[in-house]
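ugh ok so i messed up the first submission bc i forgot one of the chains. this is the corrected input, ALL of the components this time, i swear. 860 residues overall. if the numbers dont match what u have on ur side tell me asap before i send this to the collaborators (the ones from the other lab, u know who)
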Amino acid sequence: MGMAWFGRKKEAPLEVEEVEVAPSLPEPPPLNEAGLRSMQDHVDYLLGLVEPLNPFGMGLLEAWDQVLCEDLESLVDVPAHTTALVDGYAVRAADLVDEDNQRVESMQLFDGEGRIPVGAIKHVTVGEKLPPGATAVLPSTFIALEGELARVFETVTDGEYVRSAGEHLSAGEPLMRVGEVVGARHIGLLAGAGIDKVFVRPKPRVVVVGSGEGLVEPGRPVDADQTIDANSFLIAAAARAAGARVFHIVVGSNNHAELAQHVTDQLIRADLVISTTGGRREDYEAMVQTMSGIGLVDSAQVAMTPGRTQTFGLIGEDNIPMIMLPGNPVSAYVSFQAFGWPLIRKLAGADPQRKLHRGIARTGFRSLEGQTHLLRGIVTNESGINRVAQVSRQHALSELAEANVLIVLDEQTAQVRAGESVYYWKLDED
Amino acid sequence: MGMAWFGRKKEAPLEVEEVEVAPSLPEPPPLNEAGLRSMQDHVDYLLGLVEPLNPFGMGLLEAWDQVLCEDLESLVDVPAHTTALVDGYAVRAADLVDEDNQRVESMQLFDGEGRIPVGAIKHVTVGEKLPPGATAVLPSTFIALEGELARVFETVTDGEYVRSAGEHLSAGEPLMRVGEVVGARHIGLLAGAGIDKVFVRPKPRVVVVGSGEGLVEPGRPVDADQTIDANSFLIAAAARAAGARVFHIVVGSNNHAELAQHVTDQLIRADLVISTTGGRREDYEAMVQTMSGIGLVDSAQVAMTPGRTQTFGLIGEDNIPMIMLPGNPVSAYVSFQAFGWPLIRKLAGADPQRKLHRGIARTGFRSLEGQTHLLRGIVTNESGINRVAQVSRQHALSELAEANVLIVLDEQTAQVRAGESVYYWKLDED
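and heres the new structure output, hopefully the right one now
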């Protein structure tokens, strides 16, 4: 395509004898004895090639479900003011005793505005704000009024019979940290702490491109040599569920120039491109060759089942990350969860590592040592215990629709017996 | 406000002697011995007063996370065509044997288009579509070609060495039912089944109105007699998390005419109005009186803690449902989860009953018999077991932010001991 990446000059002056070093991706991780890259190495390699998106200041409600990129602390005291817990008289508690710590006989009744004078008390009703200087409330029964004079029967100490400002939440108290997702209940907390705007990273924009000769969108008539595109819909919806803003196109062709044009046209609105195909080998190869023509590409055999063949690139002038998913729907979906999900999370500023949940295997599972096996599973909560079963259906998309987890049998695991604990990724939240 | 509900005429002719029956809400459920309405009775009463929204036809990806209101079945066969599993010869298997079920000696090689003639075979490569009429494939090794003649060494039966059309999914096979939420993986399944549009109910539009004398939005300067509005933000975010499209206004007043104007102005875009206040008794009373002026109102004392005082109305000319939440943030939030959430779900066409999950109590909990007690809790998965603990913080909004469930101690429960099973509602999904 003759595009310039990394600011490389299009025409290097011929007379210069320097060897031009072709731009390339960083050194990929080493392979294991079987010539495969471990799944975790591949995730970490890809994560090392993308950066979180720049943050925006957003109104509290707009920020819902996005990732914070500042630490937040309360701007206000809750309650905002110190108030009386009973009807009585606001007082500076220290004035109630003399130098020898003996109770004073009487205090002056003060009826003005502003700071309470030394040796004075001021009438307050329950819930009323204390005047400046007051540190406690004398219940009405602790004194007897005689005109402007109040005879004192009992004393109080600082803070007695008052609800203190900041007693529930004080200005400066930490509320949320960088990297946390702004949830519904956080929004109440932040509003109550006087915060109306927060810095969050926007939802990553993901363009899902389905391609392949004879690929047609559902709802259109399908000729004998055509295939309905399910994969790009599956992955577009999965990307949206993972928190992305999704754009979706289908290109019914394997022509390299046509594919390159469609993909580069999308780069202006893409923080990540995800490619799916109609499932045939030639569809996959056409897109890999197209990627190689417009970017720097890493192709790897990963020690996982399904999803062994993985292709990643940084494409176009702005090095937009692009992952190419395998053609089989289950392989594509599993690969999305293993690599696409972490990339979306990293772009969004969230923790990109998948959380391993633990449950109890309902039946036995077998795997190959040296491979991460990802089985479609269903977890049900029985009396507080998460029971994990495998879903196995002849129709790949029905199998996925029924599953709610991916059972993760790691490289060290050859077998899990019924009743043993087993790990899984949740598919619908994390 | 002088508005007409239920089409009631504004000026009834004076000469008519009929007693005009004032419109009213249906008979509310009976009270228990303590004069309280049970929480479930109140939910069911409110649910009986709203109807699901009208459905729309939507593109598959737009329909994500919305509730289906049609049963869906596959429009296509998957695979679409019967194809050869091996290189060989397509054949009508019945032609390979004679009337006595003995193997025939030879078949004719057919090289034309269309239906395969009786007694003929046609060359196919692996993955190729079988010609019409063919029911099986003869592997190449089962015959020897002699010009146009094929000598037959072994026979096959119908379906042998073929991948049959519809073997994974057949046209007409049920995929999803009314009331199911269209999830990410369903979208893949539906696309693959040839479905591009589905009928779903739209996300309910919820207007959250925060009101109260001296109520100000966070981020504005707060005078001594003003309160920052946290409740309406908390509930707006919770309604959004529950699947609603949310509009949000704050009215810093308790003036009835002003409140009525603000609320009625919102009815054009509301499927449900939810009212919150600054928390003072007079704020609550002002809104209840306003509601009574513009609609039919049910005020109930419900056997639950927190959230005893509940007010519901059908307001304006179109009888838009409106719930008024208690003023305390925890009471408001719990009441939203108990009554607002089910109403949003009913409007959306989803199952409106909250799902009770079961876990193991980490500590003991106490309740009052005859009351449903809803405690803020946190559930953690430990070795596959959901352990339930109570969250208790002096600051109500911090307590909510930390919780991820509401622990439900029902009317029959006085005590749950540590280690016993306990029920809860999940707050972040269901």
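quick check: Chain B has four domains: 39-53+202-348, 57-73+174-201, 83-163, 357-426. that seems consistent at least. Helices of chain B lie at 39-47, 184-192, 231-241, 256-266, 281-294, 329-348, 396-402.
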